[in-house]
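[audit] Reproducing an earlier prediction to check determinism. Same input, same settings, fresh worker. If the tokens differ from the archived copy the diff job will pick it up downstream; this log only records the rerun itself.
[audit] input (246 residues):
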Amino acid sequence: MMRPAVLVGMALVVAACSTGEPAATSAATSPPSPSSTPASAPSSAPSPSPRPTTPPGPPKFAAQVSKVPRDRVPYSWRPGCPVPLGDLRLIKLTYWGFDDKAHTGELVVHERVADDVVTVFGKLYGWRWPIRRMELVDVYKGSDFDSIEADNTSAFNCRRATGSSSWSKHAYGQAIDINPRENPYVTASGTTAHANAQKFKRRPLQGKGVINPGDRVVRAFEALGWEWGGYWSGTKDYQHFSKGGG
């Protein structure tokens, strides 16, 4: 009774072989044992280290020129000044401070010299040439003396020239005073009205924010037709630059 079963089994094996395919076995169809499964290898590649961040540098020089609102010049301009308010321009610009940081300052000048001012102060900023502060003289209620005491760089102010009944070039918006403490107004006799400027009366003089004959600050203004008060005979006004002189 067992022989037919064996023959049948053999027939199955022969039939499978005749198809050209391997005979199926229980080992081939069984899932691999856990011991035969290769363990996943831990990653040997190190994780990338974060790139060092470069601290941002100083901002680029920027300047914005606009008309002057009346309420920005309540002390420095009034009816009867030699230049109409509509001819003046407010310039907001970047300057390099004594603290070695960038700041935004303001100057009021005549519209005809606004481009000159932007050009020169752009160069000063590029050189990191320091300026103490830059505010409208109206912060000091139009007082030239108080603005100088604060070492403030300023431009337009409807006032008379020092020691004269004539209008100053500042009254036309065509003059700028830069770092007036470090660059004082010195009389022909060698005196200055500001005690905090006594040590800066002579030239040449090395120091932060100091202007000297023939230096790059003077040359930058001269290239655009401005004159320096440090070249005046007798009285010296080392802070003073004006378009066309005076």
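[audit] rerun output stored. Observation attached for the diff report: The CA atoms of residues 55 and 128 lie 18 Å apart.
[audit] end
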